[in-house]
Write a sequence for this structure.
């Protein structure tokens, strides 16, 4: 068992709020102690903290009492219900949840190959494997599920787009279209399934019991086209760097929609919404260049 204090990876530290009184910073300050106590409580041996790691959790590679490898994860505040979603999937298309601590939020997960994601594959093969993985996650959430819904998040999304429209006259028509679509789409959806919520190629890792398994969900309930829209946007910079990029973007929408029997128009509309919303957030976070690229991508659709 480890006795020396651990240092959270810099990527995690820099991605959290800088306000020392925020829940995220208080959680970060307590993290070394939480990790040490969890190792003792679950009789785990620490190998190392996964680095560079993610922006919303700390993952430590550990060994269980019998020597079986596992991953100990501490999600940052603001990412609820990951354990509930993993419990529903029970290893089908996603990493298997072995144990959870409701007090600390710790999750003990099966060990995957963290350095090998779908991003290591050629683009066409990666998209094919990603589509096959995400379709396994689209299941009924049950009548009393705890997950947020796309419809329930509409007001906040519309507020964000309206504020951006007022501040960005040049992009106002595109922002207005995204706002109108974000209001209308949840009201016309005919399916309400459990979604990964943050699906992309980098969230699908190589495993032992299955070739590819999804990790890091931000689960919510809605229609499949919402999850698939994130896959359309995945590695969009690579697509934009090629020739005929606008046509290639529209082909990607059509290909993914047809491969999973999703309506092309709804996938196009959700992709535009997600691209514009992400552009607004990236710009607000200081990455104006990426925000402008996302708006350009959305305009091609």
């Amino acid at each position: 068992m480890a006795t020396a204090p651990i240092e959270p990876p810099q990527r995690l530290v820099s991605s959290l709020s800088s306000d020392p009184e925020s829940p995220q910073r208080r959680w970060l300050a307590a993290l070394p102690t939480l990790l040490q106590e969890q190792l003792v409580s679950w009789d785990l041996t620490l190998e190392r903290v996964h680095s560079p790691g993610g922006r919303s959790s700390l993952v430590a590679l550990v060994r269980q009492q019998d020597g079986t490898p596992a991953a100990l994860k501490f999600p940052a505040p603001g990412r609820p219900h990951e354990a509930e979603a993993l419990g529903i999937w029970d290893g089908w298309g996603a990493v298997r949840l072995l144990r959870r601590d409701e007090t600390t939020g710790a999750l003990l997960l099966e060990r995957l190959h963290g350095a090998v994601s779908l991003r290591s594959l050629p683009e066409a093969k990666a998209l094919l494997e990603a589509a096959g993985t995400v379709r396994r996650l689209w299941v009924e959430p049950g009548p009393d599920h705890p997950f947020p819904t796309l419809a329930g998040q509409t007001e906040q999304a519309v507020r964000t787009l309206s504020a951006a429209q007022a501040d960005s006259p040049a992009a106002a028509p595109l922002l207005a279209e995204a706002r109108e679509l974000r209001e209308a789409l949840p009201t016309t959806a005919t399916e309400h399934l459990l979604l990964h919520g943050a699906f992309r190629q980098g969230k699908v890792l190589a495993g032992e019991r299955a070739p590819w398994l999804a990790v890091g969900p931000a689960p919510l309930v809605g229609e499949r086209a919402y999850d698939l829209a994130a896959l359309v946007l995945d590695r969009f910079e690579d697509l934009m760097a090629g020739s005929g990029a606008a046509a290639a973007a529209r082909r990607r929408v059509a290909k993914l929609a047809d491969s999973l029997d999703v309506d092309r128009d709804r996938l196009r509309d959700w992709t535009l919404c997600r691209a514009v919303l992400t552009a607004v957030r990236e710009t607000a976070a200081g990455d104006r260049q990426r925000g402008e690229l996302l708006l350009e991508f959305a305009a091609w659709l």
In short: The mean pLDDT is 92.
